[in-house]
Every structure is written in structure tokens, then in C-alpha cells.
């Protein structure tokens, strides 16, 4: 009876040793940096934005814009009554021309010795004063006009032709929205990444599409109470789909260490935790791993996996340690 048991045991061992090779699908292990995403709330601000006021007060004679108009730098937006200033400008031009003629005539007379140097000097002084008066007249005339300081979009206005306004009257706002600043408070943990002038993802509060905004400006200090840093990221808005004041969700991605990428289908679970199978000399080798991050369809793991190792991705359910493997897919044998 004892001999029968012995022969049975030997037969079982023989069956194991001659077990057929397992048909599996393998792929080369790649690595990917882990990501930590920090979220914040941001508000959009025009890249340039001002409220327009007149330089002087008087009656409005013309308004050349409507709310929502796109205007170019230097465009005339509003004009005040300038009849006196136009007359003063013409008078200054006449005075300058007369002073110029007088100075040239005295220069010719002085060259012939007909007039003293003092008369010529007085004429030159009057000429220079006339140039100053003309400059003042031009400035006073220009003060009667309100022009766009930069290209942008005009806001609402309550000013109409015939209104008498003062230097304290807000005419309208103008915003350059070709680009927007997304203002947000970044947590202290993200400062290293932001200092590298990296990019952040911004998502409109009422949307789900992500856009890339480049970090443009950082405050000089961290808020001691909130432990955050005021940050501005610049978002392209040439299509003008966004407006100043809109809210955005801000996602800051922080890259960590490089980890092995494992498809979800290749992951197995045992009493000691997760593990995978890899091929070493075309034999199954169990590798215990630790899941560091879950991504769409894949896992980032730490453990005994290196870049280029052959990972078994299909046919893992019945594998045993040191079992022969038969690759049923074409694979670049980097390690074999």
C-alpha cells in the first residue's frame, strides 16, 4: 500500500513538470509620472480694463460708439463742445506763422546790419512762445475728445448727446478681452510648479471643456492665514467666448515620481495584496506591487517592475510560478 502512494506522488510531480506552456499576451512595461491634481476656484479678468472719464467738463456734442462695439486704439469715442478751442487753435497757428515771418525778416535785416541783435533775440523769443501757445491750444482741443486707450470692447454707457458732464462722470468701460487673466489662490503645495511658469487647466464653471492657461504672474508673498498664493494665469480668448467676471475651476497638475504602468486587466489580488505576472526567461514570475494611482484604464504601481520588463496582460488567471509561457502576440523582446 505504501508503494502505491509513493508511485502516485511521483506521477503527480511528473504531471506538473511536464505541464503545457500557458498561452499568454504580454507587453513591454512603460513608465509614467504620477500626477497629483490640486483644485482651486478662479475668476476671469480682462487683460486691460479701464473706466473712461473726460479730461474736462462740458456739453457732449457727439457719441461715436455703442455698447459692445469693438474699437481700435485711438478711435474717437466721444466729443465735447470745442468751438472756443478750435478758434483758439486757429489763432495760435496764425500767431506762430506771424512770429516766424517776423523772425526771418529780422534775421535778414540783422545780416545787413540794419537792426540790433536785441531786436532779433526778442523776435526769436516771441516765436518760441508762439510755439508753446500752439501746443497748449492743441492740448485743450484734444481734451475735448475721448479716444480709446487700447483696442477692446466697449461697455454700457448712460451718456448721451446733449448731456453736460464733468471730470467725475464715468463715460463707459473698455475691456481688452483678447486674453483673460484667471485669478486664483494657489495652495502652498503648488508653488514649486507655478514658479516654473507651467500651465494650468481651467474649466468654465458652467461647462466641462478644459482649456490651457499659462501661469503669468505670482504674488510676492504667501497669505499667512490661508496659506495660499495669489496667482494669475493667462487664457487665450481671441474668439471672445469668455467674459470678464466668469468663474472657472482651476486644476493644477503636479508631477511625481516615475511609476510602472499596468493595465487593469493584468492586476491580480492575493492574500498579501495586489500582484502581477511578468516573464523572465519565458517563465511566469509573480511580482507583488503597490497601487499608487488609478487612471483611466490603467494603474500606476510601485514594486518590482522596471521599464522594458515583459508584463503578462492576458491569460493570468491560471498561471503558476515558473510556468513556461507561450506568447501568442508579437512582442519586442527587450529583456528576453
TrEMBL record:
- Which residues constitute the signal peptide according to the record? 1-21
Q: Which InterPro entries match?
A: Beta-barrel_RND_2, MdtA-like_BSH, MdtA-like_C, RND_pump_MFP
- Please list the residue ranges annotated as the Multidrug resistance protein MdtA-like C-terminal permuted SH3 domain: 261-318
Q: Where is the CusB-like beta-barrel domain?
A: 182-252
Give the superkingdom in one word.
Bacteria
Q: Name one Pfam family in it.
A: BSH_RND
> In what residue span(s) does the Multidrug resistance protein MdtA-like barrel-sandwich hybrid domain sit?
50-170
Swiss-Prot/TrEMBL keywords: Coiled coil, Signal, Transport
Q: Which residues form a coiled coil?
A: 89-140
Q: What is its main location?
A: other
Q: Does the keyword Signal apply?
A: yes
As for subcellular location, the record says: Cell envelope
NCBIfam families in UniProt: RND_mfp
Q: Which family does it belong to?
A: Belongs to the membrane fusion protein (MFP) (TC 8.A.1) family.
Full protein name? Efflux RND transporter periplasmic adaptor subunit
Amino acid at each position: 500500500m505504501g508503494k502505491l502512494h509513493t508511485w502516485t506522488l511521483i506521477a503527480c510531480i511528473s504531471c506538473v513538470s511536464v505541464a503545457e506552456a500557458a498561452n499568454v499576451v504580454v507587453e513591454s512595461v512603460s513608465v509614467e509620472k504620477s500626477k497629483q491634481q490640486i483644485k482651486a476656484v478662479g475668476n476671469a479678468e480682462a487683460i486691460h480694463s479701464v473706466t473712461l472719464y473726460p479730461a474736462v467738463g462740458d456739453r457732449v456734442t457727439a457719441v461715436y460708439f455703442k455698447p459692445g462695439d469693438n474699437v481700435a486704439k485711438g478711435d474717437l469715442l466721444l466729443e465735447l463742445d470745442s468751438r472756443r478751442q478750435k478758434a483758439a487753435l486757429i489763432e495760435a497757428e496764425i500767431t506762430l506763422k506771424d512770429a516766424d515771418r517776423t523772425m526771418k525778416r529780422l534775421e535778414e535785416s540783422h545780416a545787413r546790419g540794419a537792426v540790433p541783435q536785441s531786436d532779433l533775440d526778442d523776435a526769436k523769443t516771441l516765436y518760441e512762445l508762439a510755439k508753446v501757445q500752439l501746443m497748449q491750444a492743441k492740448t485743450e482741443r484734444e481734451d475735448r475728445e475721448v479716444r480709446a486707450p487700447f483696442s477692446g470692447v466697449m461697455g454700457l454707457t448712460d451718456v448721451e448727446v446733449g448731456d453736460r458732464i464733468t471730470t467725475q462722470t464715468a463715460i463707459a468701460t473698455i475691456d481688452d478681452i483678447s486674453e483673460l487673466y484667471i485669478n486664483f489662490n494657489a495652495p502652498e503645495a503648488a508653488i514649486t510648479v507655478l514658479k516654473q511658469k507651467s500651465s494650468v487647466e481651467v474649466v468654465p464653471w458652467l461647462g466641462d471643456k478644459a482649456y490651457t492657461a499659462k501661469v503669468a504672474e505670482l504674488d510676492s508673498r504667501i497669505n499667512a492665514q490661508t496659506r495660499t498664493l495669489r496667482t494669475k494665469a493667462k487664457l487665450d480668448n481671441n474668439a471672445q467666448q469668455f467674459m470678464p467676471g466668469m468663474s472657472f475651476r482651476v486644476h493644477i497638475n503636479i508631477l511625481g515620481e516615475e511609476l510602472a504602468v499596468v493595465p487593469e486587466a493584468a492586476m491580480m489580488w492575493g492574500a498579501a495584496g495586489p500582484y502581477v505576472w511578468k516573464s523572465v526567461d519565458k517563465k511566469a514570475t509573480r511580482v507583488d506591487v503597490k497601487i499608487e494611482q488609478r487612471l483611466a484604464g490603467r494603474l500606476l504601481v510601485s514594486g518590482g517592475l522596471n521599464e522594458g520588463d515583459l508584463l503578462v496582460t492576458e491569460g493570468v488567471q491560471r498561471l503558476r510560478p515558473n510556468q513556461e509561457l507561450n506568447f501568442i502576440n508579437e512582442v519586442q523582446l527587450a529583456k528576453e
